Amino acid sequence: MPTRVAFFLLASSLLSFSQMPAVTPSKPQTPATPQKATVIYLVRHAEKASPTGDSELSEAGQKRAACLATALADANLQSIYTTEFKRTRNTAAPTSIKTGITPGVIGGAASDKLIAELRKEQGHNVLVVGHSNTVPEIISKLGAGSVTIKDDEYDHLYIVTLLNGEAGLASLRYCQ
Question: What is the pTM of this model?
Answer without folding.
Answer: 0.80
